[in-house]
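Sample pair:
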Amino acid sequence: MKASFAGLIVLLAAALTLSGCGGKSNGKDGDHAQKTMSWDKMPEMSIDLNKEYSATFVTSKGEFTVKLFANEAPITVNNFIFLAKEQFYDGLSFHRIIESYMILAGDPKGDGTGTPGYTIPDELDTDLNYEPGVLAMMNASAPNTGGSQFFICTGDDAANLNKAPNYSIFGKVESGMDIVQAIAKAPVKDNKPVETILIESITIQES
C-alpha cells in the first residue's frame, strides 16, 4: 500500500528534526559509521554560474549521475558541491526509503538528526516540480533549515509535494535512474533499509 501524502509529512517531520553536530571524530552507531564534520557557517559562494555542474554518485548499488541546477538554486548547489568535495558524504547511507516517494541520504548520524553544523536558506521560487529523478534538499520541517540531507524522488507520489513546495530542488538524475530505483526497491522496516546502502563517493564535474 502506498504511503499517503499526510503520512509522508508525518514521517519527515519525525525523522528529520535536525540537531547539531560538532568536532571531528569517527565512531559507530550500529551498522552506520558516524562521520562528524562540522562548520560554523555555510560555505562562501565558489561555483561559477556560467558553468554547468553534475555529480556522479558511486553507491553500494551502483552509479548514477545528477545534473545540478546551479542557476535555479545556486546556494543549494554551492553547498552540495562544497560538502561533496570535502568528502562529507563518503560512507554515509540512504537511511530512509519510501519507494513511491523518495530515497533520503546525507545524514552523518544516519538517524535523521545529523547536520553539517549550519543551515542554508531555501530556494523555492522556481518553476521546477517534484517528479521521479528530482534531487531536493531536506529540511527540519521549518523554513531555511536545510544542511546536508537530501532526497531523490523515486515515484509518482512525489508529485504530491508540489501542493506545498517546501524543499529546494537543485538537480535531477540524468543517467543511472535504474540504480536509484534499485535503491528505492530495497527491503525496508519502518521505512529504514534492512540492508546498509552506502554512498561510497560523490564526484563533481564542471563544464
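The chain has one domain: 5-206.
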